[in-house]
Amino acid sequence: DVIELSYHTRNTPDISSKTTPNEWQPNLNSVKRLQFPNLDTEIRACVRYSLERVRVNETEHVGIIIDHEKEHDFLFWKEFNRQTSHRNNDLSPTKAQYFNTFSSAQSLADVKSIELALSFLELNQTRIETQKFCHLLQCHQFALGDKELSARISLELLLRNNFSSTTRLGHLQSVMQREGKPYYCPHLSTLLTKFSELSRRPREFLSLSAWAELFTRQLELIGWPRFESEDYLQWQKSLYQLSSTSAIVGELDITGALRQLRSLLYQTPRRIVFNDELQISLVSLDEALDFDFDSLWFISADDQRLPCSISPDTFLPLSIQQEYGMPRSSYKLQLEQANLILTRLQRNTHEFILSHHKYEGDLEIRPSPLSRTIPLSPVPDIGSTNNLTNPLNPVEFEYVQEPLCLPLTSVIGTGGTSLLSNQSNCPFKAFATHRLGAQKLPNLQPGLDAMNRGSALHLALEKLSTKFNHQEKILESSAVIRQKFIDESIEPAIEQMHKQHPDVMTPTFSNLERIRLSNLLNSFLEFELSRSPFLVHETEQQITWDHSLLSLNFRVDRIDKLNDGSLVLIDYKSGKKSSYRWFDDRPDDLQLPLYQLAIGSNIGHISGAFIYQVNIEEVTLAGATDKEDLHPDIKPLAQVRLFDGTWTDLQERWNIIVLAIAAEFEKGLLAVAPTRGNQTCQYCDLSSLCRINDQKNLLDKQDELTP
User: Do residues 221 and 146 both lie within one domain?
Assistant: First the structure.
């Protein structure tokens, strides 16, 4: 029987030559066949047709036969969004108010409101995810409503900037109880205290019915849900099912109870309610038999769907399945069923369209053999998706000509060197960041992020440079003394990280960080010995650069004095080495150019400026100078092909560029003009604000329309 099944599935007969007693006879007056180049074009035409039908007739019921397994419903939802110039906040096809659909791959746990309830209940855990708590702070489901909204926003920013990925609820409550702080949230703290008090119990292990009762009381206290819905009724039913398993599962702790509840919700499909007010329905082939449609469109009516391919049960002999006429056991049965379905659908609708697309990627798709006798009708002109008259959920667009400049009217004293670097990279980025205060919410991640590690290394380098403030000291010190100074320099960095992330900096993790920093500092000292003689003149020198309406504060990491008495400016970087394009008209980084301009000749003659790259891959210096003996890897400007001139010439050029960029910022230039196009935009977080991608798409469309 297994051999017979294998032979039967691999040798597909040409069913176009078969005839059945109930063969479908298409009525060419009401049945059409359309062919499209691909699925996207087919769906676009179908959506346009459906919207036009319901626009003309308010009582029209349009049916679209789709394949749920291929996620046609989601593709249709996106196309309806596009053609109606509407954006639905809930990225779920079942929430889009365009059509009814009766099959959903979405489980109850995937519903946003249910997911929110689970996030609230996870506050019972010993450790909670900081990211989820931040989402709860944004939520309007709190019984607080909009109360303390501004303070909750400040609290979220504090958590994202200073907390690790997991924390304790008690720690969060102590933070939000600090009076006088912008994140002071006394009402929220009181609510969370009441929430925690409900979960206090004499025993750690309880039955699932007791847990279900506790969960209900806690959610009522929080204010969930704000209104009853079909999803909420399913939630209540799921809690009842959870309680019913108490005798089977036994007693569990809070973690086990939440795991059981989440598992049950994932196994529960979301129930979808039919909306009589919607004129369009997305249905499967079987579901279509239960409705009468004024017009019906069968999407992807190819030889794979019409008739459906066989799918016999692998655990029963094929001959027995065919003998008893089990569904999908033979091509003859599938063909008979397809003919019966098409006959009934044709009888129950006024206009019946069968469409298919010719290609799916590189694969050519054949039309259904049942529709080959129907002549191909001309494909309707789908035109642009933006010129529908009176679409569903219409949105009126107001076109505004944005000003190119908004001049600065008051002094700006924040931003440091990044203000001018951002202006050099893209004027809009500088405007949005330093005048609008726009920034991406920091992502919370386990452990320490690159910024935390970089700050720790920066502090350790500062301490070590103070101890070894002369190259001769390094040469004269023994390996034991060097390691002692390294260890002493590392401890302030470890203390800083422990203060910022006490939950992360356990004794074991702290030792790992000590080893990492020790390796980096040893490599740093080895590189210091390969340089020409120097003296550490200053570390962490505070500089204020006042220019017109700009008052920028920054610190120069280190200033070294060379044997000839000249000074070189140094800034530490712990990331990967990159091209700063110092010799371009608009450099990517104006840190060193601004340093040398702001310091000027007040502290002595400056003969170079460098980035000290210190990371696990390499330790090196990169910058500009006329000196030939500073380090074997550093080329003097006379040997640099990208710049023709001396260090003095470069200083003059840098000064002109810095002052021009500063004047540009004061003028308020806010053009979306990334200096290096996509390369500049690659790591920018403001694309949703500047809408540069939308601008590019608009320009592309205009180019297409231009004859």
Answer: yes
- The confidence score (pLDDT) of residue 332 equals 87
What is residue 551's DSSP assignment?
E
Alpha carbon of residue 689 to chain centroid: 15
Same domain, 118 and 259: yes
What CATH number has the domain bearing residue 319?
A: 3.40.50.300
Contact assessment for residue 540 and residue 508, using Cβ atoms and an 8 Å cutoff: no
Q: Is residue 191 part of a domain?
A: yes
Owner of token pair 């504060």: 553
Q: Same structural domain for residues 187 and 230?
A: yes
The two three-digit tokens of residue 235, written as one number = 């939630």
Give the H/E segment covering residue 49: helix 39-56
Query: Is 302:356 a contact under the CB 8 Å cutoff?
Result: yes
Claim to verify: residue 242 and residue 286 sit in the same structural domain: no
User: Distance between CA atoms of 523 and 256, rounded to whole angstroms?
Assistant: 49
Q: Tell whether 153 and 228 lie within a shared domain.
A: yes
In a domain, 338, yes or no: yes
Is residue 431 within 8 Å of 406, Cβ to Cβ? yes
Which of residues 338, 371, 404 is at a domain's end?
Answer: 371
Integer Cα distance of 596 and 417 in angstroms: 12
One domain for residues 157 and 227 = yes
- Which residues are registered as beta bridge partners of 566? none
Same domain, 150 and 280: no
Question: Domain tally for the chain?
Answer: 2
Split at pLDDT 50, 70, 90, the class of 242 is very high
Asked if 265 and 240 touch (Cβ cutoff 8 Å), the reply is: no
**At residue 206, what are phi and psi to the nearest 5 degrees?**
-135, 165
pLDDT tens digits, one per residue of 545-579: 999 999 999 999 999 999 999 999 999 999 887 88
Q: Are 420 and 654 in contact (CB under 8 A)?
A: no
Report the 10 Å Cβ neighbour count for 661.
24
Are the C-beta atoms of residues 352 and 30 closer than 8 Å to each other? yes
Residue 259 belongs to what domain range? Answer: 108-267
Q: Which of 470, 471, 423 is nearest to 589 (CA)?
A: 423
Cα gap 271→625, rounded to integer Å = 71
Say whether both 257 and 336 belong to one domain. no
Distance CA 212, CA 241 (A): 10
> Token pair of 213, please?
């009762």
Residue 571 maps to a domain: no
Is 525:541 a contact under the CB 8 Å cutoff?
no
Per the structure block, which two tokens stand in for 327? 């569904």
Q: What is the DSSP string of 384-409?
A: -TT--SS-SS----------SB----
Tens digit of pLDDT for each residue in 490-499?
999 999 999 8
Q: Which of 72, 64, 80 is nearest to 352 (CA)?
A: 64
Final residue in a domain of this structure, among 309, 343, 371: 371
pLDDT tens readout for residues 592-621: 999 999 987 678 899 999 999 999 999 999
339-386 residue pLDDT tens = 999 999 999 899 999 999 999 888 888 999 998 889 999 887 655 444
548 within domain boundaries: no
For 591-647, give the DSSP string.
HHHHHHHHHTTSSS-EEEEEEEEESSS-EEEEEEES-SSS-TTPPPGGG-TT--S-H
Distances from the Cα of 650 to the Cαs of 56, 625, 676, in angstroms?
71, 9, 22
